[in-house]
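User: I would dearly like some help making sense of a protein record. I have put the entry right below:
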Amino acid sequence: MLDESPVTNLTDEQCWELLEANEFGRLAFHMAGEVHITPINYVVDQGRLIFRTAEGNKLLGMTMNHDVAFEIDQFTEDEAVSVVLRGSADTLEGDAAEFVDTLPLRPWVATTKLVVVAITPEEMSGRRFTLQRPWLHSRKD
């Protein structure tokens, strides 16, 4: 008899639920022939991830190459989940950018971030992992 797999693929609906339940992830982007990764806080709105940024490498990289990847994860002692999406990042302007003020998106760090960016997913996957981690379960308190 085969044991149940410790890895479960998540549906798109489950991935969106996890993305909506979180507000912190990692954005990967290209710049000058290199891949960079940076933490961002975000909000989900109308099937897109929305975040704010300031002038700098992140914005320059996304302006030069709109292709990005984004990842969230969380774990407990017994389980881990991960959602990864790939898509296109575009700056929002005018009414579209002003609409973001109605969303629960505020900078975590007291810096001015005037540029609003939307990531439109083109591909998304998620997995849930049942963790064994025997070294945690064999501890003696």
In short: The first helix runs from residue 12 to 21.
